[in-house]
Protein: Protein NDNF
Organism: Ataeniobius toweri
Amino acid sequence: EFWQLEAPSLERMRQCKGWILVLLMLLGLRSLAQKLPTRDEGLFQMQIRDKSLFHDSSVIPDGAEISGYLFRDTPKRYYFVVEEDNTPLSVTVTPCDAPLEWKLTLQELPEESSGEGSGEPEPLDQQKQQVTVDEGTELFTYKGNDVESYVATSTPSGLYQLELLSTEKDSNFKVYTTTTPESDQPYPELPYDPRVDVTGLGRTTVTLAWKPTPTSFLMGQPVQYCVVINKEHNFKSMCAAEAKISAEDAFMLAPRPVRDFSPFDFVHFGFVPSENGFGKDRGLTSNKISRAYLAKPKMSDIQKLCIGNKNIYTVSDLKPDTQYYFDVFAVNSATNTSTAYVGTFARTKEEARQKTLELKDGKVSDVFIKRKGTKFLRFAPVSSHQRVTLFVHSCLDAVQVQVRRDGKLLLSQNVEGVRQFQLRGKPKAKYQIRLRGSRKGASTLKVLTTTRTSSKQPFPSLPEDTRIKAFDKLRTCSSVTVAWLGTQDRNKYCIYRKEVADNYGEEQRRREQNQCAGPETRRKSEKVLCKYFHSPNLQKAVTTETITGLEPGKTYLLDVYVVGHSGHSVRYQSKLVKTRKYC
């Protein structure tokens, strides 16, 4: 009687030993050709306690998520043992890079004859139900890129095989298997409504809200939320988003180095000659050579932001009139496992259509741009024309100028000071000008477009270099001698001086002075003189002036204004000079 009571349990023990033996034989076949490396015993004992570290093994640990990698069209098999009958089982497979095909089978072996059995043969219909072929009993199959699970409340003891295959490309995946699904719950639980809602929409912002996971307050597990933003599609798992981020990072572009240009110096009066040659192509250009923009690294099209445990978040710095996809993942901070909410998408609002300013041929227009703002101008010549001359005078900080002719981009440059552009004309063409303000502050500009070829333009002609040169050897206690370049056009030049503090710097000068403010804004006491000057030979278009009546050891700010035919003036770059203290 005692033997009869214990026989079932002994039978289960015998079957369990059989499954373990088969599993060891399968693993042994894989390692026959491998030379086992030596190991640090202390390190091994520490690592063996962490089941997730054994992801390269064909044995799936119970209760730990493992990561794996599949080569295309190369199946991979994993095994695990269920030791007792009527055991609950849960197997979860998470595809990352590509859709997967996976299959779960129960590997059964032919029953061995036992002396303890009754010896009576089983009915034929029961024998047919026992599958003893090598492929085993197929329990579940799936093909796709969803996070899919096989869940059974009662499974027989035996050796289980999980086979995975990727037919599209090499791919990453994750697998979690447990025989205690009720108590484990490794993945954060979704609320009854797992959708992500868009609660606010702007031109560059989208506000998201979702219901919190019950895992944090019911089970006391640490949970944080991560938001993924991209322009292509929603993601079904965190590892799918991370795989995309890794691919984007691999192709990030490094910024291209740029070289700043140095203005040429005068060759007269002891100036150092320019390497590029003095006076070449000098004429109606600018008072400062434009600085090249630093090439910015290409921003990734996908972002991942982990925001803690708050369930409302506003995504900023988006592009107007652009569709974005938003995914939220609840992440168990202790195990790093995650669950995806039902993602959403939204299109940001269009940029506010700004009023376009119509430019008139030969008339100067004043334009004000807010900090980082944009203004649109339009020029539509009435008659046919061969070229269009565009003058841009940036009064404060540099602005970006972009010109299109009938939608075709003609130029895009950073402008500081005065610039003149010659645009090739086209019959019935229309020109669109976009001005983008500085990041530092508001910008004020004067803009002129004309198709006329008259030499009398509203803006005065300028040399390429508009610096004022002071001669240290000619400096005295009461005077300084300066020089500046002119052009072939006869223009009026006015010199002004102003005493400033010794610590007066370039940054203070830039903040205080408006490049478009003319001589009419200066005090009469600051005026030194006005004179007309030009030279048919650009090599000789240099003039000097000695400013007298100064105080010893004092600092002065000198300005030269060149005035055009219509009264518009342009100021040269200011110059700080200091008289000698002792003579």
In short: The longest helix spans residues 2-31. DSSP finds seven helices and 31 strands in the chain. Residues 391 and 420 are 5 Å apart (CA to CA).
